[in-house]
Batch of 3 targets.
Target 1
Amino acid sequence: MITVENISVAYRQRGQSVVALENLSFTVADEEFLCILGPSGCGKSTALHVIGGFIPLTTGVVRHNGQMVRGPGKERGVVFQQHNLFPWKTVEENIGFGPRMRGETKQRRKEIVSDYIKIIGLMGFERSYPEELSVGMKQRVALARAFANDPEVLLMDEPFASLDSQTALTMRQLLLKIWSQRRKMVIFVTHDIDEAILLADRVLVLSSRPGKLKGEFRIQLPRPRTSECLVTPHYVDLKKTILSSCHSEVMG
Amino acid sequence: MINESFKRRLFWIGQSKIVRGTSAFVAVIVLWEFLSSLRLYNTLLFPGPRRIAMAFSDMFVSGEWFGDLRDSGVRYSLGFVLGSVIGVGLGTLTGRIPVLRDTLGVLLNYMRSTPSVALIPLVIVWFGIGEEAKVFVVAWGVTFPVWVNTHSGIAEVEKEYVWAARSLGAEGSDLYWEVYLPRAVPFVIAGTRIAIATGFFSLAAAEMAGAFGGVAFRIFHSHQMFRTDKMMVGILTIGALGVLCDRLFVSLTGWLLPWWRGESQLDK
Amino acid sequence: MMVDFLYRPEHFEMNAPFNEQGERAIDTASYLREATGVISMERKRHGRAKVWLVAFILVACALVALVVYVRNGQRNGSTDVTKITYAMPVTVAAIPAYVAAEKGFWTDEGLDVRPEMFSAGRLALDALLAQNAEVMSVSETPLMHAILQGNKIYIVATVTDHQEVKFIGRRDKGIADPKDLRGKRIATLPGTNSDYFMYEFLKASGMDIGDVKVTNLSPPDMVTALVQGNIDGYFAWEPHVSYARKQLGDNVVVFGPSELYHGRHCVAMNQDFVRAHPEVVEKLIRGLVRAEEYVKAHPEESMAIVAKRTGMEVDALKALWPEYKVRVGLDKDLTQILDREGKWARGINKSPEPLPDWRQFLYPDAIGRVRGVPVNLEP
């Protein structure tokens, strides 16, 4: 379980103090899929970075299973929007990186890697370098790499934002598929309402800077969720509710 | 009438890089020989290609040219390796550790501006006139471009790579070997490529004082003895050596590190 | 359709088959572009660009040739010349040149001489040969080399007789006698009179170059190297011998050239210029002759002038002054000196060609007119 207790993040930019997050508090349960939704620049990525231990807090504390988060660790995996894969390593070396750091044997590593290669559908690309892959393929490998290390928590920072809508749809299905087989806590940051509703158990809406909690919505659509549920009335209701929450944001 | 397919074949040949490059050289040589035969200037000071070719064949047959290549080659190789290793070592330190960046880095930056030629009198005092002195001067010329670029490479590693690595369980020295150094490799390569050329400048400076052999020494010595034709052979040799080393380096790094060429495509 | 060879490769459809005329079809996009005239315009642009390029190269060559030709003409063709450049090396032996420049003796003759200082005689000679200076002076050895290579210069006068070239060696390296040089590390500057002196010095002790380990350094570096102990001795000219002696004191032994070598500081000019402007040569020599008288009459002031030009201390200069005899003239001893050095140079270069007639490179007319006595160069 992750508890975010009253965190604020402020930094200096060009001599001025900028508050990215203000008094944000929430909790996330194990194996829960949480989406943090908000407009650009609202600090949602900052919140994710703080939870991951990548950037320091100004006030407040983040706890993972009761322990204060002081820095990155293998219990909290991450997928960024870009600069994920190590360009100097092949696909299989990237995916096998976590297991290798853990000290797994070569045999075991090979098994894990080939498992995931099959899941993400990139057979034949094991020896390719990231530069030879398309953006969609790279994000697939990034997903595989994060899952292969089997962390308790997976932090995802708008991972599908730079993909075209077709590829993004496929990627969301892939993510849900893997997640359904290997349940873990996922904290997923996005600006896309459809994405949030499709993926999450719960959606937190963040206001624009300084980021404050604006709304919290439980998504009760049944799983597995396919793109068909995007056109159900229940979905439309949810979207309306969340939209109005966001709109007051954009106008405000 | 020249038929169309001949014209087209000519066109394709004209697209070839090798043909274009060679024609450029040939054109220059022809033009040079022509101008020098006109005697518009003192050709004893600046001989034409024919005299240079004759001087070269003398030096080749007598073995002098090979001896010079060997002497210069040894000095350059040792100095290059020494300078590269030191440059990379210093760069990984100053790029990553802020205290060192602000102390050692500042000193190195100052030393960087000192050209090898200006250093020669001091080098004679510290090292004498033996081979160590010359290797040192070459290393001096090589270290700084390598250091600057390594430093940049290490300092500018994208934070996401470091974060991702740490979230996958890498820490401490793992990070160095798995993330920082590999990420810095393209920068190191760029710096080393520059250092190839600056190494040659330093070699020339080193051989001007207290040498018995070597390509640059031969240039200097021939000048003193009024053999401008031999001098030109030396100058052209050094130029050719520089180009050769550069090409070798590019091929070698392209073969050893196939992934780095695609750097710019990463952020598609 | 017909394919013009100026199309770029991307216009060809690589996988299309050849048609009956043996050409490949153009892909649709290129065809469309051509239909709208874009390609044909590009082709015209390319064609015109090539013409411009060729024209530019031709014009550039023509300009360069023109400039060089005009410069040559200016140097040798123009009538009255009153301004010339004198390339002077930094060396004590150039005493009369420094004094003449400082005291304006040439201006009195109606000649505006601009002295340009060079750190080495070799560089000053380059300036003359490249026609960046009309006159220069240096020891006879570089001039000998230049003549052997076929450079068309005239030696118009010798201005200083000197014995400034010496050997200095360290006692603690085992050098006390000329024969002790065998097997030692000795430095010299190739192509200069110190290089030649080394040859004569070794020969006098029954040795040759192969018996010593020769390294090439510039005189200031020689001083450092000797003091550091990197070399055991060197051949150089003053003041670089005194500098080392000052630092090493009794630990050194100095051998002067005595009868083995007499150096001459000579004034040289390009032959074309001399033939075109003999009156300039005469004015030049008159100024130097006046300088010679001045030096004899005012030694203290002359020393001060030389000290300023060379950057030496006056006291050091005073100690060396007796080794220089200012004497503006031209005589047959010079041809003998040149001849000996010429044999040495040919020997080093292993060249079988005969030596030139050195008298062809001496110009005694101006000296003769100034002194009122014709110069006899016959052997």
Target 2
Amino acid sequence: MEPAKIIEHAGGVIGVSWLLIALPLLGAAVLLLGGRRTDRFGHLLGVATAVASFVVGVLVFLQLLGFDPAERRRVVPLYDFIPGLVDPMGLLIDPLSISFVLLITGVGSLIHIYSIGYMAHDPNRRRFFAYLNLFVAAMLLLVLADNYIGLYVGWEGVGLASYLLIGFWQHKPSAATAAKKAFIVNRVGDFGLAIAIFIIFTTFNTVSFAGVMTSGADASQGSLTAIGLLLLLGACGKSAQLPLQSWLLDAMEGPTPVSALIHAATMVTAGVYLVTRSGAMFFPEGSTAAIAVTIVGVATLLAGAIIGTAKDDIKKALAGSTMSQIGYMMLAAGIGPAGYAFAIAHLITHGFFKADMFLGAGSVMHAMNDEVDMRKYGGLRKVMPITFATFMIGYLAIIGFPLLSGYFTKDGIIESAMEHNATLGWLAVLGAGITGFYMSRLVFMTFFGKKRWEADAHPHESPAVMTWPLIILSAGSIVLGGYLILGNRFMTFLAPAVGLPEHLPSFHPFSVAGLVTLALVAAGAALAWFKYGAGEVPVTAPRGSFLTTFARRDLYGDAINEALFMRPGQWLTRLAVFFDNRGIDGLVNGLAAGIGGTSGRLRRVQTGFVRSYALSIFVGAAILVGAWFVVGNL
Amino acid sequence: MTGTIQAPTIEYALLAPMLVVFGAAIIGVLVEAFAPRYLRSAIHKPLTLLALAGAFVITIWQARTGIPTTPSAMGAVAVDGPALFIWGTILVLAFVSVLLINDEGHFVASASAVPGSPEEERALTEGATHTEVYPLVLFAVGGMLLFPAANDLLAMFVALEVMSLPLYLLCGLARRRRLLSQEAAVKYFLLGAFSSAFFLYGTALLYGYAGSVDLAKIGTALGNVGGQDTLLYIGVAMLGVGLLFKVGAAPFQAWKPDVYQGSPTPITALMASGTLVAAFGALLRVFWVALGGLEWSWTPIMWGVAILTMVVGAILAITQTDIKRMLAYSSIAHGGFLLIGVVALGDNQQHNASALSALLFYLVAYGFTTVGAFAVVTTVRDAGGEAWHLSRWAGLGKRRPLVATVFALFLLAFAGIPLTSGFFGKYAVFQAAVDAGATPLVVVGVVSSAIAAFFYVRVIVLMFFSDPAADGPAVVIPGGTWAVGAVAVLATVVLGVFPQPVLDLAHTAAQSLFVR
């Protein structure tokens, strides 16, 4: 089934769905412009706008459900800058965007609430909430825009918010560097997206999704492939997929709620959104671009998992896991209509269980004086029972423990990949096995085993404002997957936006791939138990084999970037500066000096004597009369 | 020819806006003659504002009840769509300018006293004011209304003089820097008289050619009178000089910086907005109605004038160090951009209507922004009056962020940055010109805009990125000026973000083009 037609909408809550974006944007504006005056209530305002936006999102969702499925793609026109020249700006409310809206505002609100407690002692808490609000607004614009330009504005907006929040503690040089790195690496992807939009505009003469869908322009295969690959480049940057993955691990320098919201649950999934949204147009089944998407997805899901096995920093291990899980989503998104629903469903459940675990990690860090090294944890399950219980649920969900969320969504991805291409399918199964290992390692090192705490550590359970979000998120991590996947509920819901595959998949609990996956996960968990649960964990990391170093150093991603891009880039910069100084500047400055000099000389004509003004009028009149004779007698 | 004189039929209802303004001006003269000195100001201020507001309401009402399709008052005045739109624009701009005039301290205590003399001293201590300003302004505005609506050259000439004479006087009434102000007045008067002579001579020659001063009749004569080309060409050129002088097109722009600088700033605001709108209205009417058939010959000449005007305005503005002179050159450059639209006349009625509506929109957008900019100029004051030298504006953004931000907004609008009104004005006019095949002209326009952007942005840089001087100017914002600034900001932003309603209005007004 093809995606439904996009129709114009007016009235109801959907008619005012711009509130979704306006509310958090207002919060950010008040908090940033209000300055210290808003310190006292800044965090409350930040939470209030996020929750209000969520409420609007739910109402919009309910109104959308009231329509016939074929009429569930609706554009709310907002603003027409130059009619006829630029596409009007509008919001696209459809099952795909509303799924994202609910995830962003729902999980976002929980993380806002959690941050009240987490950032309680930070003097800049108000600024933190302002940036979080800014992020939510930009992310909502990204997923709601009905055209690529609007999407791009949101895309850059989340990039900015991400930069500001990674570097939130900019007094730490590592945080400042990480923020810069994230920004620069993302720039590469953003250029890809920008160029893709340029090509879309020149090819279709429009940038709106509806326009591109229905333009029927005779686009050559070459330009379609180019657009697809460039969009993929953009997606790789934002979603930390190979080869633009290197920034995500460093991004963990930001406060932990940021890692949960931006670098796990929402922003990093924007690439999956982009591919899914453009799927029917630029990633048709079997196209080069779609194949590239699946390859990137599989490569990243393995790379992320391998990195996750070697990290001792709890947040970096989780970041590797995020990379890997997004790899799964990418893989599914590259498969086409058979995979879209699983990609987005996994994206949503991942949003819950990964945010749950990140916030759980934050809770642990909060208790352990901001220690992130898991080798200095151990045995925390007794002192932090709620954090432990909720973390365990997230953990079981991500490794795909039967009947929890991740089990259904990840299994869906593996099954559809298997059907699409067996190699990809088996690689995805392998990834699931590694996931079982590294996540178990993380849990055992943190919550089980002996206490390896620093002398001054006095862990304690976090306050209720932090534990309640954990409880809600873990509830979602239990039920959401089954609810979405069983009976193809989500696939049917999403169909108007992304289409349906030829035949609907059905859920087989005892398929070969499913059983092998479970076995591998169990084996991975068991291995982790022997190495880290039952055995002794040294407080300083052992040197390890070549493979361990390989994983610890992020598969030499940074080394490759430095050798291939940074150093030649620096040479290129020097060369460009040289030419700029000698050639371009000379030309530009010369031109400016020329105009300035002309101005200075011409100025003297303005003598201030009325007689010379009168003369100039007379001469001008004479020239005019003369000119008329010349032209008239031509 | 019998000896009887027929009484002319005059459609008083159609001319009501003008009559209201002139009527109020005459009442103002009577007030000057009979009301006691201490009451005059209190009568003038509401009377002037009321007259302008009333005339505006009547204009709107006329536009809603149906636009006449034939000239009125025996063919002397054409109250058509463009005229009504221009009337509305002028009346609003004049209203806003009068708000600026209402604030104290702009006008001389006793104009007849020699600057620096004991008489002046005495007048100052007595607190005397020249309340004649108000009727003078109303007469000038009345002239501005008639000028673009005049349908024959004689009525147009009368309107030109009715508009100009009060302005000559008003220019000389600045309270501070009186010598400069008087010099400006004399210069404006001498050069204005000189250019009027050109206009009148051109009228005479065209009458000799066509046997009529009626614009439409001149238009029909163009194809039918043979062998009189000398009369025609000289006449058209002379007429053109008179009109181009009023819009300040090069090479007839020399008066503008001197006059804009010397005049009391509220009067500069009125001239830079109202007079410019009126003069462009008249220019358009003459060239499109009377000389439309001669378009092949004046288009290349107008190209030259437009290019010269844009380039001279933009380049000379770069080296200005005086804020008012800089704005004057900016006004010259904008006159050049508007001339691009005048050249966009073609054979296609629909196209001409859209070119005309683009020009009308540009006039509205520029008018509001320019009044706002001069309003800000009045607020930045030194001990000796307004601080005109650019160096005095350094660091204003740090001391008075709101004032500096507002001024920056106006400058960006002048430069034509998107999301300000100036962008749409330029965009619409350039678009119309490209459609008419004047792409090279648009290229020059864009390059001039780029040069012009330099000196606009330079002021912004100066305000926000320089350190304020220790003895920097004070910023005084009286109530009226506050309102003017608010209105101008609103217009600049709204016309930049939601231009459609005004664009539609301009389009409706331009739909029928000028009546003949």
Target 3
Amino acid sequence: MFDLFYIPEIILSIGILLVIVIDLYIEKQKYFSYLLIQFLIILASFYALTEVPTHAYSSYEFSKFTSLIKFLLLVGALIIFHYTYRHLNYLNNLKIEYFTISVLGLIGTMIMISAYSLLMLYLGIELLSLALYALIGFNKASKLSSEAAIKYYILGAMSSGILLFGISLIYGFTGSIDYFEIAEQISSVNNNSVQFLGIIFGMIFITASLCFKFGAAPFHIWVPDIYQGSLVSTTILLSTLPKVAVFVVFLKLYFIPFITLAFIWSDILIFIGIASIVIGSIFALTQENMKRLLAYSAISNIGFIILAMGLVTDDGLNASLYYTIVYSFTALASFGIITHITSNSHGIEDISDLAGLSKTHPYFAILILITMLSSAGIPPLIGFHAKLMVIQALINNSYIILSVLVVLMTVISAYYYLRIIKTIYFENRENLISTYTRNNILLSINVILLLGLGVFPFIMFDITSYLASILVDISI
Amino acid sequence: MNIELITFIIFSSLLIFTSIKVITSSNPVLSAINLVFSFFLSAVLWLLLGAEFLSIILILVYVGAVMVLFLFVVMMLDINIAKKNAAYIKYLPLGIGIFIVFNILIILFFINTFENINYNAISSINIISESNTENLGFVLFTDYILEFEIAGLILLLGILSAIILTYRKNPNNKYQDPARQIDVRKKDRLKVIKGLKE
């Protein structure tokens, strides 16, 4: 019984209740509460790696796969909170509640990852989205922030409604919300019966809602506005943790309960993936705002992930896992750099705000150079291997025309990544750029890893193929 | 035609009517009252299905708590009656088009579905008594205890985010700090001056 207390979710949820109370008494020492939260996350990530009882609760799954993904998420959260504390402190907008809400959202992502029934999945998604609504509207001084919060709130509520409609259809036609029982029911249903049609109907509704949460193409309209309106620290959170969690939800839903329907969802996912890549690459060309540009780049990156997943083969699965980890790594670096810089005494908004950075702050200029080249997919960096794996998987499954299209879109997207580099190194404009630190060790390590893992890509190949192998273990 | 079907048709058509009134009436108070009506009517629909607990909860929570609070806020804020928005009319044809296509698809799908579905698939839940409330409580605190706890976390997060989004600290507020009041020593307030004579 007592080993249950070492489950990371329980550590975080009990700890965060304590932090809420303790923070009331030491309102002045914000740094102490912040350190307490960081300590909780370190403790939880430590216990995430230790052995847990497999399948301790019927609708909640513990396995090596979920533990490793949770570990990655917790480490990501640790780094994000480190950037966030300094960023908010610099903007004089520091409140400990920002971190408590983020930690509750983090618990939501962990519930989504471990969910083994549709009800648990819905609760995890709700916990995460509720935290995100509050974090997006956190900057009360800005009109854009409130607008973004209301937009995300209304659209998010609608997508939750669509998700619930899909779940109720699945429950009505299979008689269960448990992943395993749904899989059994679907495999025993006749392909021409009405029941089969109903299950597909429900599955498509769930797919639409999850694609909204992912920010994939036909449901992407919210992404640029929300990225632009929220604080940069919220934008990092939005572009890393929920994406990884929704990706794992996709994997578990499609490869456990809906695996026998693969001939249907594979086409849907390939279409969504291609549409995301095309829209993300083309619409980013005309963006002047840095955060909007990175939002469209996120849409096209998510397109790659979904496209690789839609192939329903081992190499596609490997490629999508690899791409997800690389993407969140790169997003952590690129948004992390932006949190450190202010231009003309406000945060970075337009790309032109960065002009002249190479003269005043060569360290940050080089970091942005490496990150952008990696996102564009230039060979020695890790972004190249990620894109290569997806295209290789496409060619192996004889989607030749699609792979040509994807390569073309990659070339187009290289233009806007290179435009940022051009602004930094070759444009002479007077900007009052300042940073609150000369360098940051975590940021440097993050960017050096982009280079180092790109030179030695086999380390990451091993990690992702291990992850893929243990994922297959649980689905049987 | 049995009595259940007649009741269903009457109440569901009233429900559709009031729901449309909620979004079309220009006075926010009228919208809110129509919403109250639609909650009552959907509670009746629950009753028809034999789910008496859910229908009572719907009235208690939504009508009793949420909508009364909402009406208070609307009355206090003195909101001007909104004019018919031009954008509303502009997007109406598109909305109606999507509505028709979507509903035709759903109706086509459902029209011959429910006669053929095999309900044996739905897994049997332990029914321990006649009462709906008792059954729900039993399932909620045994099979779904973890989900119940997580719902608690969601409520906590709701409270936290509502406070953080609306709370503004006013620097002009005057308040007492008991800790500082106790901390005061004699020498801070009292100054004894010696050697002063009239």
